[in-house]
Amino acid sequence: MTLPIQKATYRARAIACGFGVAGTGTHSVFVQCAILEYSEMNGDWRASGDEITWIGHFTDAATARTVESLGHFGWLGDDLSELDDIGEDRIASIMPGEVDLVCEPEEYEGSLQLKVRWVNKPGAGKFAFKTPLTGAALKTFAAQMRGQIRGARGPGGARPAPPSTPQR
Fold first, then answer.
1. What distance lies between CA 116 and its chain's CA centroid?
2. Fewest CB atoms less than 10 Å from the CB: which of 48, 60, 97, 151?
């Protein structure tokens, strides 16, 4: 299976890691990732066979996000050298987390390729209020709003009738 060259989010886990220096002189880290696929039969994630590489950079603007991304993979250390050139045998204990990779197509040397833009905690891309309104607090708010909702609906505050289905 080959990943389509389109904007998508994939669940993944780290399988290798290493470091290098970009042509610009920027120190960088790569994490090779195995893309995971949902198996509806048993509800578990399983390897799809596809891989993609995330590259993080250590610049004034990017270091904090790079370290945060490594943390999403489960790395809790402060010595980057422990991540150097490790493969699947050791990486599972150093970087055990699953992540969501936000990927987008990017042109590189005249052709389109899929690039990892963001490494997030699983499910982190979904909207959530900073302060959720649930339970008793939601019930209290709903009671306070009941009169205003009826007023917004016009005279009598009745619910509008559902749209009728045309007869054929």
1. 11
2. 60
